[in-house]
Design goal:
Layout (H helix, E strand, L loop, with lengths): L1 H12 L3 H25 L4 H12 L2 H12 L2 H19 L1 H30 L10 E6 L12 H10 L3 E17 L2 E10 L3 H5 L5 E2 L15 E4 L1 H8 L9 E4 L2 E8 L15 E4 L6 H5 L7 E6 L5 H18 L9 E4 L7 H37 L1 H9 L4 H36 L1 E2 L2 E2 L6 H28 L2 H7 L7 H36 L10 E7 L9 H12 L4 E7 L13 E3 L15 E5 L3 H5 L3 E4 L12 E6 H8 L8 E4 L2 E9 L14 E5 L9 E6 L3 H15 L4 E6 H4 L1 H39 L1 H9 L4 H29 L1 H5 L10 H27 L3 H7 L1
Parallel strand pairs: 3-8, 5-7, 16-21, 18-20
Antiparallel strand pairs: 1-9, 1-10, 2-3, 2-6, 2-9, 4-7, 5-8, 6-7, 11-12, 13-22, 13-23, 14-22, 15-19, 17-20, 18-21, 19-20
Helix pairs in contact: 2-3, 5-14, 6-12, 6-14, 6-15, 7-11, 12-15, 12-17, 12-23, 13-16, 14-15, 17-23, 17-25, 17-27, 18-21, 23-25, 23-27, 24-28, 25-27
Length: 877
């Protein structure tokens, strides 16, 4: 207890220092006055009595110091003195302080923003119970986006036969439609999930209850809905009475059971469903028995002690057994386990992108620290006489080093605080932004604050150690002789050379990366897609509320009506446009096949169901043969159009027109060959594609493609008005095709923006670094330059003396940075589409950029050197 009390009084003493000093001075004065009075009574004069009293009392200042050591922590008191002195020194150099704070603000702020995103996407655990044991089942071959896991019957087989999971649950993320309650209608999208979905994830409702396995008893047996917190608040005004309410999703009624917790949105970080319904009320009875489709994404929780490898082997064995039992539908492809949350196999790309951007952001911070270290080193050199005098007067070297480090830490704290404020604003904007990938919940939490603090402290140490090292190794006598203007400290200049060279190398690397990103975006925008989005509009039609099937004649009438809109040049329909998950995995068999097992299939192409005129409206070139026709019906021979890759893989160099193959149980004749394109992602290799006539397919169409030369806003209204007039109950969404492609181009655009910002920051730092060294070099050598001019030196010699060293460093650093850029091509490939740092345009652009930066940064110091007047300098000296 006494120790705690002493600790408390010492802590309190730090905040009552002046009061305690005043009280102690009054007490000392009373003692001295008493001794003085006693000496006067003894017969001494007043002056002599006081002098004797002071000698008897002892050294006042020494006693004060001893008393202070007892009532406060001296290290804390001295630290506070260092902070106050550092603030006073920095206040005397406002320009230097402002530049330093802005530099750190940019460097630390950029890193905090990047860390905030990395923390939200990669580091923060999912809002489910025991996320470390939760895995997503995937087919062994790498696939992208929401290419799903398995069929519903196969899911039930895995659920019953596996021995490694405590539970398996599945969901389909493509539910949606118009939600109706009372007199309100709202377009929503959500999940359909198996009955044990919420139980497997270990989530508890915020209101009401969830549906469970016991609620499911077959097709259409569980008309229940769980609302998300956001939908509950935005659409139902957070009314607790919504539980038990009957709402309609499309044509189907659902009873609201409960509301999910505010932070829960499933297992995908970018997806925020509006609701959850049981999968048995989303799929039809036929779909629940169909083994050919793969609509479910499957999640599993491992049993204790089971490794992911053991679980994958168990599932793969089950898949092989199912392939033997159902050879016509099940492939027997092995399975593997991945962590859920990042669009399945896209997670590797997202992780690589974010970690690469984080690495580049750290390079920016390193460049900022090198810049400040160079400035601090120059400033310490100018203060060398002051520091030498302080050493001569008794200050220890460690005290001076601590003072310089304190100055660096004060600057770093100021820069870190302003950077954190800027980062908080930017993260708030990102939190409100709906990207094409979906919504990402980012914010400033304890982890972000801790990262900002660590970055701030490390930055202060990095650029503060350079001047501290100079002071530790300096000679006070030599410093007092030479003074601040001496130019013989070659080793110190060499250190600043290294720091500037490091800045230039990093700047060149980041400028090269930003130019590579720009070239990648240009390359992607001009890549051959196999269709022409520009000038085309997409109209998606949701027929979930339409009673019965839409007859073929009505479909034809809709397309004809769209073609008759003024300004329309062509129109057609397709089941889904490229880059929206075109169906894959339908086996193709050669003509004459009798055993239709998957082992006998030769291709598994993308399949698109199209109307006549779609290829023209999409801008897809028909290389050979004819388009599909309305005369191609179920009563005529089945036909198909294939792309070049399909034809080459099936028949090699043999002409494809007239060739036959079996697809979906029908022998089909190739009547046309279309050009290759991109269908799922920009980086994919050429994929086989088959186009089937709408008039010969059972698959429902959903998207109209309309090409026109009229403005988009006019066309959107005309298209929606035309289709609504023919099908009033359908939900119609119209947008331009380039807008629909935003998700496909988002990654390269994000990379271009991220690397562009990094390159700009690095360029600013390099420019200030070159300017600072050139200006410092000129200011220190003004007398020498004056003498050279007086002796008749030419202008080019003066320029070489003044700014030659920074320009040489610029050239050497730029070459090294370009070489690093070439070696870092693999890293850039994680960020940029078809990254090629060896691209001549990139190399020339980087060289020109660095040259312009060097010219701009050294222009002012060079002009100052050329304007030197020897007579004025000599009179000044």
């Amino acid at each position: 207890m006494p120790r705690v009390r002493a600790w408390f009084y010492r802590l309190l003493g730090l905040f009552r220092k002046k009061q305690r000093d005043t009280e102690m001075a009054e007490e000392f004065q009373q003692h001295v006055d008493l001794l003085t009075e006693r000496n006067i009574v003894a017969g001494m004069s007043a002056k002599e009595a006081r002098n004797v009293a002071l000698r008897e009392f002892g050294g006042v200042e020494q006693i004060k110091e001893t008393a202070r050591e007892q009532r406060v922590w001296m290290w804390a008191d001295q630290l506070w003195q260092d902070v106050v002195f550092a603030c006073r020194v920095l206040r005397k150099s406002p320009a230097f302080t402002l530049v330093a704070v802005l530099t750190l603000m940019l460097g630390i702020g950029a890193n905090v923003v990047v860390f905030g995103v990395v923390n939200a996407v990669l580091l923060r655990p999912l809002d489910v119970s025991e996320p470390q044991n939760l895995f997503e089942l995937r087919l062994k071959p790498l696939t992208n986006w929401k290419l799903l896991t398995t069929s519903y019957p196969a899911f039930e087989d895995y659920q019953q036969r596996n021995a490694t999971f405590s539970g398996l649950a599945g969901y389909d993320g493509y539910s949606g439609g118009r939600l109706r309650w009372g007199g309100t209608v709202k377009s929503v999208s959500g999940y359909s999930a198996t009955g044990n979905y919420f139980d497997l994830l270990g989530v508890q409702p915020a209101l009401g209850r969830f549906f469970h396995e016991a609620d499911v008893h077959g097709s259409n047996s569980a008309p229940y809905m769980v609302l998300s917190d956001s939908l509950w608040r935005s659409a139902f005004n957070a009314d607790p009475g919504v539980v038990g309410t009957i709402v309609r999703l499309g044509k189907d009624p659902f009873t609201v059971l409960g509301v999910a917790p505010p932070r829960f949105h499933g297992t995908e970080r970018f997806v925020w469903p509006d609701y959850w319904i049981p999968v048995v009320n989303h799929f039809g009875a036929d779909s629940l028995r169909d083994r050919t489709g793969h609509p479910l994404t499957v999640l599993g929780r491992l049993k204790p002690g089971v490794t992911p490898q053991q679980a994958a082997e168990n599932l793969s064995a089950i898949a092989a057994q199912l392939a033997k039992e159902y050879p016509k539908t099940d492939t027997g492809v092995p399975l593997r386990l991945i962590r859920p949350g990042l669009y399945a196999d896209e997670g590797d790309l997202i992780r690589g992108f974010l970690y690469s951007v984080a690495g580049l952001a750290l390079l920016v911070l390193i460049a900022a620290c090198a810049n400040l270290a160079s400035l601090f080193a120059a400033r310490a050199a100018d203060r060398s006489r002051e520091l030498a005098l302080r050493v001569a007067l008794g200050a220890g070297r460690w005290r001076l080093v601590r003072q310089l480090l304190t100055e660096a830490m004060v600057l770093s704290m100021l820069g870190g605080a302003t950077g954190l404020v800027i980062a908080r604003l930017l993260l708030g904007m990102l939190n409100r932004w709906e990207s094409p990938y979906g919504h990402l919940a980012v914010g400033v939490d304890v982890g972000v604050y801790l990262a900002a603090l660590i970055l701030t402290l490390v930055s202060g140490l990095l650029f503060g150690m350079i001047p501290a090292r100079q002071v530790w190794q300096s000679s006070p006598l030599q410093a007092m002789k030479s003074g601040p203007g001496d130019s013989t400290a070659l080793r110190r200049l060499a250190l600043r050379d290294l720091l500037l060279g490091a800045q230039i190398v990093i700047c060149t690397l980041l400028v090269t990366a930003s130019l590579v990103a720009v070239r990648g975006m240009v390359r992607m925008l001009h890549a051959s897609l196999g269709f022409q989005p520009q000038g085309a509009m997409l109209a998606e039609m949701d027929l979930s509320e339409v009673e019965g099937d839409v007859p073929l004649e009505k479909k034809k009438a809709m397309i004809d009506a769209l073609r008759n809109i003024p300004g329309v040049t062509s129109a057609g329909a397709v089941n889904r446009v490229p880059f929206t998950g075109g169906l894959r995995g339908v086996p193709v068999f050669p003509q004459g096949t009798t055993e239709f097992t998957l082992n006998n299939s030769v291709l598994a192409p993308y399949r698109f169901t199209i109307s006549p005129g779609y290829l023209e409206a999409a801008g897809t070139r028909l290389l050979h043969g004819r388009d599909v026709s309305w005369r191609d019906t179920t009563k005529t021979p089945y036909v198909a159009i294939v792309n070049e890759t399909f034809a080459r893989k099936m028949w090699g160099d043999t002409p494809a027109i007239g060739q036959r193959f079996i697809l979906l149980g029908h022998l089909r004749e190739v009547v046309g060959v279309a050009e290759d394109g991109k269908y799922h992602e920009m980086q994919e290799s050429p994929q086989p594609v088959v186009y089937l006539p709408l008039s010969q397919s059972e698959q429902a169409y959903r998207t109209f493609v309309v090409r026109s030369y009229r403005p988009q806003n006019q066309m959107a209204a005309a298209i929606e008005r035309t289709l609504s007039g023919l099908e009033p109950n359908a939900l119609i969404t119209v947008q331009s095709w380039p807008d629909a492609m935003a998700g496909a181009l988002f990654a390269v655009r994000a990379a271009t923006v991220a690397l562009g910002v990094m390159g700009l920051l690095a360029a600013m730092l390099a420019m200030t670094g070159i300017f600072g060294m050139a200006a410092y070099n000129v200011s220190r050598r003004m007398k020498e330059l004056g003498i050279r001019v007086a002796l008749g030196a030419r202008k080019n010699h003066v320029l070489s003396t003044a700014v030659g060293r920074p320009i040489v460093l610029l050239g050497v650093g730029s070459v090294v940075g370009l070489l690093f850029g070439v070696f870092a091509s693999r890293l850039m490939g994680q960020i940029v589409y078809q990254a090629n740092p060896r691209d001549p345009v990139v190399v020339v652009g980087a060289v020109l950029t660095m040259a312009l930066l060097g010219i701009a940064a050294s222009a002012v110091p060079a002009l100052r050197a050329l304007a030197v007047d020897p007579s004025k300098l000599m009179r000044y000296e």
